[in-house]
Design a protein that fits this description.
alpha/beta; 6-stranded parallel beta sheet
């Protein structure tokens, strides 16, 4: 961690509309590999925020999970970090934070959000406005599949839900086959801190499906960024990945395997989000 530097190159320095609340979006996940849906989540959220809220998004981060997560289909962090960097190089506001990925131990989602709070608000004082510095709101960006796991008894610790949803809040992208209303009803305590965003153009790509295609030697072109595809091809990644287990996969939103009292839960967060969610 001695060489770690928090990325700020694409972070907006000054709030454009002083009447709004500045927000930084954090997408946690496996990103094994990153897909276009992981990136589209940020853009969908930004569009929704501009039209339906009093927020102003000033930055976005991908936070790949550590190798200690030991999820099936998880290639090494150095590969996942590089693919995320390649995929976001043309974005004007989405960055990759390596802090979580390079840690030797697994880090709960709540603590990842604390890390961003510390870097952006404690160390840097937030964002500039005409009347001085203002604190930035840190929020989780994930898919509805992750929210579904949060509503399942015993998957997430109550203190982690209080921390993630109560302290920070979450922007949730709807996802096919997820009963969003049922999940929200079970999380009523934090309903005013959960903002749900419809997919106007449905996209159900996931890292799990990408790995399956690669294992079967099928094309994944136009499902993931071309730069990531070339990286995979050049290194022969995912060719020997075992098929997924028959039980429900939640990796598309961020991190997939459910862990009791673990803030990552089992959401389709494969990219912690893996698709629209927290880790894939």
């Amino acid at each position: 961690m001695d060489s770690y530097t928090f990325p700020t190159a694409k972070l907006t320095r000054s709030l454009q509309d002083e009447s709004k609340t500045p927000v930084v979006l954090i997408s946690c996940g496996s990103f094994s590999p990153i897909t276009y849906l992981h990136l589209r989540m940020f853009e969908m959220c930004n569009d929704w925020v501009k039209e339906h809220s009093n927020f102003e998004i000033v930055g976005g981060y991908l936070s790949p999970v550590s190798d200690a997560y030991k999820k099936k289909g998880l290639v090494s962090a150095n590969h996942r970090i590089e693919m995320c960097h390649l995929a976001t190089q043309e974005s004007s506001w989405i960055m990759v934070d390596e802090w979580e990925a390079i840690k030797p131990e697994y880090t709960r989602t709540a603590l990842v959000l604390d890390h961003f709070e510390h870097e952006i608000n404690t160390l840097r004082g937030g964002i500039d406005t005409p009347t001085g510095k203002r604190k930035v709101k840190i929020a989780l960006l994930s898919g509805a599949d992750l929210l579904g796991t949060m509503s399942d008894p015993g998957v997430w610790a109550k203190e982690d839900l209080d921390h993630i949803l109560g302290l920070y809040g979450a922007f949730i992208i709807e996802r096919y086959a997820t009963d969003l209303e049922a999940a929200l009803s079970a999380l009523e305590e934090w309903r005013d801190r959960i903002w749900t965003i419809p997919q106007l153009i449905q996209n159900d790509v996931s890292s799990t499906k990408i790995r399956t295609f690669l294992r079967k030697d099928m094309s994944i072109r136009y499902l993931i960024p071309e730069s990531a595809l070339k990286y995979i091809d050049d290194r022969g990644l995912f060719k020997d990945v075992a098929p997924p287990s028959p039980k429900k996969n939640s990796e598309d939103s961020g991190k997939s395997t459910p862990k009791i009292n673990d803030s990552r839960g089992s959401g389709m967060v494969d990219g912690q989000v893996d698709g629209v969610p927290a880790k894939s």
